[in-house]
User: Which sequence fits this backbone?
């Protein structure tokens, strides 16, 4: 084995002489959250994903605004500036999906899940703690990224006289909504991960559902196609994350987000049952 | 104390553990012995609440593992397969485990020191050798200073020094009146470490006795006799009702100890070149006892995954 380290072997075995380890005697949810928080930040995939999320989310928004500001001001595109001010988040959601899936599937891929469940046999508590750490982080980072993108992108829009104020219709909502949507889609990926227990499989399923199936259902005829399009998780949930949607036929922002939350909750509930019932 | 009662685990129509009952007492090292695929790991996984028994139960101090609010304070476990994320450092792995059970961070440094990993605590465990991984697993087991310690194949991948270290550690833990339950497929290792044995094969308990009883019952011994007057000696011993076998130029005598045989031969004025007690190895005894389950595995091609 290359790169192997070696240490001198201690000859004697010394155990804690008093055998009374202090600390919390009856650990509960707070301790499980603390443990999941340490786990979350002690692997490299987390800072990488978060870094990519910020760079893609804010950077692409700024780039798209800079490139299209003049055309938008000229009114030749037929699109609203509000459709572009959080544009980068549609790409950044992929990093949220990767992070969400990895939080669960990396434990199955490495056998870590056995350590996790011996430390905390209460499986519902483990899942709740994971969900809290993941969604909390994604909400904060997602919102901050959207604000960064807004500040940068709006600088270009303002130069062309089409800037958006925070008080304008839907702007503040879309910034908070970006954080909410990323938290939701990350949790969705984690829930799928609980069901398939495999990183590549979980990512394929969620990305296909969002990017492929979500657009193909538009081809279904009549009211079927209309409603299927409205109800697909990516379509329903992402309206809240943009002041003006490119597709005017989707659900209202908060109605759509409520539908999206219900869908995430449903998959998560099935994932929880799988976690409870299956052998680890 | 660990107690298994009619513990059964079926995967589909294959029975991995078949109505197994045994008790593991504190203050001694209990070896859990069986060939690969006998059901050792499955039993240990049920003990730790990872697998759900199909029937029966296995409890620690009268409670199911999952019922302990801080299980790491009650049961310390080294799992057979590595249960680690390769990208996380040894210290971080112990840190999150300590946090989950409300143990102080100070304890992380203590167990790192006990297993001798302090210097490499910041390294990612993916770079660890098999032996270092085992040590980290033992550090995990000791984290909550638990009264019950369960080690699944702890000497796998360890060098001779490491093996001796594990032996000392388990003996020390038992001397502190802890319950020590140690699995292995190596009889030779068990003979040096365990006071008590639970032997399992094909998902069933084949023996549950002290090491001394196991040796007396299963490890046949004989007295080796070499003599230039081999024929006369053999005749003499047979006349005395002893069981004498001839292998090459030696006699294998059963039914009397070496001293008695020496006196008998000496009184007749016959010459002896060698007179020694030979105990058949425990490995042989173990192989004989578990032969049925090994044959079964070979014949039916039980998949290797069954060990897990």
Assistant:
């Amino acid at each position: 084995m290359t790169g192997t380290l070696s240490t001198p072997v201690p000859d004697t075995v010394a155990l804690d002489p008093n055998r009374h380890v202090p600390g919390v005697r009856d650990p509960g949810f707070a301790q499980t959250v603390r443990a999941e928080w340490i786990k979350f930040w002690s692997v490299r995939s987390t800072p990488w994903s978060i870094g990519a999320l910020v760079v893609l989310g804010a950077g692409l928004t700024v780039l798209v605004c800079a490139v299209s500001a003049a055309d938008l001001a000229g009114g030749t595109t037929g699109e609203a500036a509000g459709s572009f001010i959080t544009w980068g988040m549609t790409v950044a959601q992929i990093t949220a999906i990767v992070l969400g899936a990895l939080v669960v599937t990396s434990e199955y891929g490495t056998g870590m899940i056995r350590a996790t469940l011996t430390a905390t046999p209460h499986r519902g508590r483990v899942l709740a703690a994971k969900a809290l750490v993941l969604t909390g982080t994604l909400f904060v980072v997602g919102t901050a990224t959207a604000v960064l993108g807004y500040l940068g992108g709006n600088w270009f829009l303002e130069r062309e006289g089409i800037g958006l104020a925070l008080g304008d219709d839907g702007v503040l909502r879309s910034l908070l909504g970006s954080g909410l949507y990323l938290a939701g889609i990350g949790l969705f990926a984690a829930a799928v991960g609980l069901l398939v227990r495999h990183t590549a499989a979980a990512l394929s399923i969620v990305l296909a559902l969002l990017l492929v199936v979500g657009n193909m259902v538009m081809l279904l005829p009549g009211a079927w196609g209309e409603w299927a399009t409205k109800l697909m998780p990516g379509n329903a949930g992402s309206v809240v994350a943009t002041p003006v949607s490119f597709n005017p036929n989707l659900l209202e922002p908060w109605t759509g987000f409520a539908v999206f939350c219900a869908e995430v909750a449903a998959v998560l509930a099935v994932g929880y049952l799988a976690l409870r019932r299956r052998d680890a | 104390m660990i107690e298994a009662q009619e513990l059964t685990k079926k995967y589909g129509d294959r029975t991995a553990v078949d109505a197994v009952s045994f008790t593991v007492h504190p203050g001694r090292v209990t070896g859990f012995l069986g060939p690969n695929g006998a059901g050792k790991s499955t039993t240990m996984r049920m003990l730790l609440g990872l697998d759900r028994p199909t029937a029966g139960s296995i409890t620690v101090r009268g409670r199911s593992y999952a019922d302990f609010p801080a299980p790491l304070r009650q049961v310390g476990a080294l799992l057979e397969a590595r249960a680690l994320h390769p990208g996380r450092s040894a210290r971080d792995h112990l840190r999150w485990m300590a946090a989950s059970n409300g143990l102080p961070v100070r304890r992380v440094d203590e167990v790192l020191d006990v297993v001798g990993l302090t210097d490499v605590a910041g390294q990612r465990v993916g770079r660890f050798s098999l032996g270092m991984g085992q040590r980290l697993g033992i550090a995990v087991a000791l984290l909550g200073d638990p009264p019950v310690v369960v080690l699944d194949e702890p000497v796998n991948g360890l060098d001779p020094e490491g093996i001796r270290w594990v032996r000392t550690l388990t003996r020390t833990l038992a001397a502190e009146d802890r319950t020590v339950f140690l699995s292995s497929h190596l009889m030779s290792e068990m003979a040096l470490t365990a006071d008590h044995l639970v032997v399992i094969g094909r998902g069933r308990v084949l023996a549950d006795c002290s090491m001394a009883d196991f040796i007396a019952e299963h490890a046949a011994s004989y007295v080796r006799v070499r003599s230039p007057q081999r024929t006369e000696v053999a005749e003499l011993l047979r006349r005395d009702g002893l069981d004498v076998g001839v292998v090459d130029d030696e006699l294998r005598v059963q039914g009397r100890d070496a001293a008695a045989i020496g006196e008998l031969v000496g009184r007749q004025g016959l010459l002896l070149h060698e007179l020694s007690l030979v105990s058949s190895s425990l490995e042989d005894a173990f192989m004989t006892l578990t032969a049925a389950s090994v044959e079964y595995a070979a014949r039916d091609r039980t998949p290797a995954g069954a060990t897990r």
Observations:
- The radius of gyration of chain A is 22 Å.
- Chain A touches chain B through 52 residues (CB under 8 Å).
- Chain A has a mean pLDDT of 91.
- Residues 114 and 280 of chain A are 6 Å apart (CA to CA).
